[in-house]
């Protein structure tokens, strides 16, 4: 188990994201963190790294820039940021909690396998630091209303760290696309499954060369009530524990029989 519960007033918090150092969601998350503790550090990507997943930069050197006291940027992935923060920037006094986000867009269902926001929390978890990833859902073509995350984020963290969770587990939190006052509550649920659409946009660039752009079309129909997808699309905040041991234990015995 992680060393939980936490006394947040004495907690050293690392804030990171995948949308980059200048993202609005990072500002929201910094404000959330400062509601909880006076010891807040920021190490975030220099540029947007959405859908970077748990990638690590190994084929070139990384540049770490200090922007201000306790505020840094890295020209790499979210995973790079957490690794450098924990093992270099904060090596003399490691963080006791990592918050990642607030992502511009939800990370529900299969999104977790692509998300740089989730990956930053994964890296922290692998480094034995408890981590919470946060994402703000929004409707395409509409302005993003960050008020749900801004108003409820600190309360979610306060409640989450009152109980212990295993060292291989991170928390994935998603806020609905509703004003803060219209949020229907917080529910602890499993990840859902939604069909990733076949929206591959074929075009020709100005030089006459064809290209393909992967679209974002997805289906939300026929999702179970006890899933993050259902909760977020119905105005609630979803909290899902994500387990990093990807072994499917029930299949172990079946496979062993095949290899005797």
UniProtKB/TrEMBL annotation:
Return the InterPro entries for the record. SurE, SurE-like_Pase/nucleotidase, SurE-like_sf
> What SUPFAM superfamilies does the annotation carry?
SurE-like (SSF64167)
The Swiss-Prot or TrEMBL record lists the needed cofactor(s) as: a divalent metal cation; Mg(2+)
Which gene is annotated as encoding this protein in its UniProt record?
surE
| Biological role | Nucleotidase that shows phosphatase activity on nucleoside 5'-monophosphates.
User: What protein name does the entry list?
Assistant: 5'-nucleotidase SurE
Q: Which NCBIfam families match?
A: PRK00346.1-4, surE
| Keyword Nucleotide-binding recorded | yes
Q: Which GO terms describe its cellular component?
A: cytoplasm
Task: Write down how the cofactor binds this protein.
Answer: Binds 1 divalent metal cation per subunit.
Record's catalysed reaction(s): a ribonucleoside 5'-phosphate + H2O = a ribonucleoside + phosphate
Q: Where does a divalent metal cation bind?
A: 18-19, 50, 103
Segments forming domain Survival protein SurE-like phosphatase/nucleotidase: 13-196
Q: Which family does it belong to?
A: Belongs to the SurE nucleotidase family.
Any GO MF annotation of the entry: exopolyphosphatase activity
Q: Return the broad EC class.
A: hydrolase
Q: Where found in the cell?
A: Cytoplasm
């Amino acid at each position: 188990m992680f060393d939980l519960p936490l006394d947040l007033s004495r907690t050293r918090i690392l804030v990171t994201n995948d949308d980059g150092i200048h993202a609005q969601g990072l500002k929201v998350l910094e404000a959330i963190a400062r509601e909880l503790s006076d010891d807040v550090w920021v190490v975030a990507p220099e540029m947007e790294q959405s859908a970077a997943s748990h990638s690590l930069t190994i084929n070139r050197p990384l540049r770490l820039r200090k922007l201000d006291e306790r505020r840094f940027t890295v020209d790499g992935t979210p995973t790079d940021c957490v690794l450098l923060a924990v093992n270099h920037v904060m090596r003399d006094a490691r963080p006791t909690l990592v918050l990642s986000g607030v992502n511009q867009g939800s990370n529900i269902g299969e999104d977790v396998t692509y998300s740089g926001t989730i990956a930053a929390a994964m890296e922290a978890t692998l480094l034995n630091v408890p981590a919470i990833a946060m994402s703000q859902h929004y409707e395409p073509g509409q302005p993003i209303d960050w008020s749900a995350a801004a108003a409820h984020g600190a309360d979610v963290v306060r409640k989450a760290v009152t109980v212990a969770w295993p060292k291989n587990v991170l928390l994935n939190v998603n806020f609905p696309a509703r004003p803060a006052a219209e949020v229907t509550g917080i529910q602890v649920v499993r990840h859902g499954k939604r069909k990733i659409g076949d929206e591959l946009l074929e075009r020709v660039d100005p030089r006459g060369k064809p290209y393909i752009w992967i679209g974002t079309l997805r289906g939300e129909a026929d999702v179970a009530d006890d899933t993050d997808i259902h909760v977020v699309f119905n105005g609630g905040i979803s909290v899902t524990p994500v387990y990093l041991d990807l072994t499917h234990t029930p299949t172990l015995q079946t496979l062993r029989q095949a290899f005797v």
